[in-house]
Amino acid sequence: MPYTHILYKRWNIALPIWSLVSPLIGVVILMLAGGIDNTFFVLLMAASLISIVLSAVHHAEVVAHRVGEPYGTLILALAITVIEVSLIVSLMLSEGAAGSTLARDTVFAAIMILLTGIIGLCLLLGGYRYKEQVFIKQGTNAALTTLTAISILTLVLPNYTTTTPGPVYSNSQLIFVALISLVLYGGFVSVQTGRHRDYFLPEDDGETHSAPPNNLTTTLSMLFLLIALVLVVMLSKKLSPTIESMVISMGAPKSLVGIIIAAVILLPEGLAAIRAARRNRLQTSLNLALGSALASIGLTIPAVAIVTVFAGFSVTLGIDTKSTLLLILSLFTISISFNAGRTNILQGIVLLVILATYLFTTVVP
């Protein structure tokens, strides 16, 4: 991984200057966002958001290079998911009962984007460049098994329980589902980082890799990674009214706003996964995408359960029939695609078609 040495050479800090300046400019823009409201400033926020996303991807790769796999992808997935959960909880507390579907819509959008969008692009671009790419089946199967169970139990089962009418869990059911979500995600992380860590390690591709960055460079990258991810969420929140007005002016349903915001929040992970696939490191891409999907459910549902129980309002978790069909189709397609241990361009095309169907039927239900 090439680095541009900046700052003081005696400290041996190896980071490009743009990766440090972009988040700092974003902080300034965020501070000014409350008092300025015009088209030029909105475009400036959008440009700053893109540069911050690129900065986050770079710092994530520095940290991943230092700690090694699968810890590097786990750190990025956890960091983004924790910030995503914080945003969801804050919006739920501010909107009250009006935000009862926010967690469901955001989590489902994140899962569909990760499963069909990010993985689809990775398989498409990797297959186009290398024809076939390999990965470790045991690790991918472990992630898919856990993801299938946790997504069905949290997003589909509420439609069929009878203690509380509608696609809603009662408080006791919600607490139970929150606990099993933590158990499933915790079990996956323990397998990924402990007992079966070798299932998630990318195979050596024969490339010559640079020496890992030193402790100071890694610490700076970790700090700026967290700053960048927080800024991605905060700027997305600031841009959401503009995005919402654009969606409404187009005549599209309001649920499209949640998809756009989820896509922006997941952009750092998506770019990191795509770059790994283009380097023929598909295992890293799958670690990022599947790990993020699991973290999105495994951490969001318990947080939402705590807020719901203590705030005293209900939360709708069950997705509708159309969304259930698309979720099952996505999980089924990926399971078949990864059954052979090799991927090709066609599998990426199929997943992207499912994503396009999801987006189209959201706009034209």
UniProtKB/TrEMBL annotation:
Listed GO CC annotations: plasma membrane
One matching Pfam family: Na_Ca_ex
Stored InterPro entries: Alkaline_pH_Ca-Antiporter, NaCa_Exmemb, NCX_ion-bd_dom_sf
Molecular-function GO terms, alphabetical: potassium:proton antiporter activity; sodium:proton antiporter activity
Keyword Plastid belongs to the record: no
Membrane protein topology class: Multi-pass membrane protein
Subcellular location as annotated: Membrane
Domain Sodium/calcium exchanger membrane region: 41-193, 221-362
Domain of life, source organism: Bacteria
Transmembrane segments: 12-33, 39-59, 71-94, 106-130, 142-161, 173-194, 215-235, 255-274, 286-313, 319-338, 345-364
Keywords of this entry: Membrane, Transmembrane, Transmembrane helix
Protein name: Ionic transporter y4hA
Organism of derivation: Chitinophaga fulva
